[in-house]
Amino acid sequence: MQKSLHIDPGKCTGCLQCESACSIENEGMFNPSKSRIKVFTFHDEGRFVPYTCTQCDEAWCMQACPVDAIVINAETGSKDVLEDVCVGCKVCTIACPFGTINYNTTSGKVIKCDLCGGDPACAEACPTQAITYVDANATGLDKMRAWASKTDNATS
Amino acid sequence: MSWTKKVLRVNLTNGTVAEEPLNMQWANDYLGQRGLATRYMVEETDPACDPLGPDNKLIMATGPLTGTTASTGGRYSVICKSPLTNAIACSNSGGFFGAEMKFAGWDMIIFEGRAASPMYLSIENEKATLIAADDLWGKSVWESDKILRTKHQDPQTRIACVGRSAEQGCLYSAIVNDLHRAAGRSGVGTVMASKNLKAVVVRGTQGLANVDNPEAFMATTKAGKAVLAENAVTGQGLPAYGTQVLMNVINEVGALPTRNMRETQFEGAANVSAEAMAEPRKSDGKPNLTTNGACYACTIACGRISTVDRTHFSVKDKPEYWINSGGLEYEAAWALGPDTGVDDIDALTYVNFLCNEDGLDPISFGSTVAAAMELFEVGAISTAQTDGVELKFGSAEALVWAAEQTAKGEGFGRDLGMGSKRLCEKYGRPEFSMTVKGQEFPAYDPRGIQGIGLAYATSNRGACHLRGYTIASEILGIPEKTDPLQSDGKAGLVKAFQDATAAVDSAGLCVFTTFAWTMDDIAPQVDAACAGDWSSERMMEVGERIWNMEREYNAKAGLTSADDNLPTRLLTEAANAGPAAGKVSELDKMLPEYYAVRGWTTDGTVSSETHQRLGLPG
Fold this sequence. Notes:
Chain A has five helices and eight strands; from the N terminus they run E-H-E-E-H-E-E-H-E-E-H-E-H. By secondary structure, chain A is of the alpha+beta class. In chain A, a hairpin with a 4-residue loop joins strand 6 (about 100-105) and strand 7 (about 110). Chain B is an alpha+beta fold. In chain B, a hairpin with a 6-residue loop joins strand 4 and strand 5. The longest helix of chain B is centred in the last third of the chain and has 21 residues, at about 535-555.
């Protein structure tokens, strides 16, 4: 069963535990600036929104890469950057409509979410289940359940 | 290691910035943040110096766990000598600024001297630059934040800034970071402004890679987070209701100081409680509370994000306040509400916004307004001083007017900016000031909760709940229940809370974790992060060392046991209602016992044996 990251901004408190977990897992240090998942705070609106790569099926970043440095992970469905192939040209960062693949000035390569090989550290670290790792065929299940619960059977 | 082992020294007189190594011997003895920065203050400043003169220093300090993934590991403190108390000041703040300092590679920033004209400090990793801030002077924190963000063009930048109140010399001005978190107490913002330093802008992309034992650290911090999640206070109460969960609780036990602490229960408490914040309002069907928000790495997320009712008189013509921002926390809600007799939650929320916007400590501000209201009631001040405003208990209009004046340092706001001690002295009724060492009380009446009275009286930064939160034991039963009406045994309880808190602060953690965590949960996290062995016993010893060092600093600043006192009202006028009715504070019984438990002489001096045992400086 393929799984996918599922984000519910309504549950996010903006604590950045996901960014901390992502950076220690992938960069070996606590460093939100190098996190592949980002939480955006909309202060005036009182909202926190975690955002990361959605692993498009026909990934623009992968199509755009001139050296085939982005490949599909057959097990998880994630689009992974092969660091030793990447030449740091950044064309993928232009191609991605969502901005979720980014250049890392330290390595000279691009970085993006690779679902941590099937055990995403951000979902594990999130204290409020704003980020979960669920069946890719039913990412809407919780929302469906929530709306279903509002159906008043007694009056229908 | 977890320390970056780097200190940034900024000399504002000379306009120089320099990197120097952190004194690791001191880090071993004082851990970080509060303890370590105070050790630097002891070494580098004359405790008798003028707090608003160039000889005072101001240190922004992180702890070893700041910036890590440990829950609540985002705290920093500001340490300097206080202009409000003339004692050591240490004000702790959350938000994201402290962690960013660490990611930029700095454990501490030491500011010394005074700039000839307004400046701000910009930090991008190892690069630090002093930049002219003439365009920011005279602007609020919120205005300055916008300007700095536009200028630096980096949305991830973190900013700590002082507001107009600090520039105008208000003695309890805060340093506000991330728009609504603050190093709030004791006038640390006033000291920053006295140095002509308007803001610190920091961006750190280096990260933190030197945790001593990464595997153990991930395991112990994960275990710690599980303990917080499973605890009723940190896992349910605080996220849902915030600290405001206390409003009705403290009112019920008869320890909610009301109308300048004349009474101990407030008839309007329910109207300004956490429950009221969640109640949909008539105008737009939305509650005051929008959501809860967290500081960096905090898995509790007690912060309130709120709005003011757009139809409320305070903001109906001011759309710039129709936003979400930091909402009411218990101490602020109490000082602005019950202590002034105002039960209008929108007025309180708006005034709280103003406190954040211009860096007023809402506890000291609200308490000073309460004292002014009592002065007005007895005729010691009149409408001649207040531009015709009827400064009466219960008047939301008067509270809002007072906040607008004090935030900008205008008119009677300049008097209110002196704090309640100096205000009451100026108008001839010093007994109306509810302060210790010149700092205003927080939200727990020492007649109904005996231990907290001793904690107030002996706090090294003046009246404060965060130096030894005995409420945890006396009201909430953490770690075990003690009777709030009894003074027996409170000396030892106060000492234990004071020492533990000093250690928790110095680690870079939030004291709210201690509703769930004991030192046995905290020490393993510190031990995994830092070189050396950090047991619970060592943490407690570090805490005790810090407490005694602060005490000795204050003694050299001229404070004596006469300053370990409470206002006469709390010692002689009995609580008027509730379970504590008829009680006064039994400070006279507790204080000698406390000195003995501390290993101090009968006049409250750190004995030479205690000094030696703890290896204190000097």
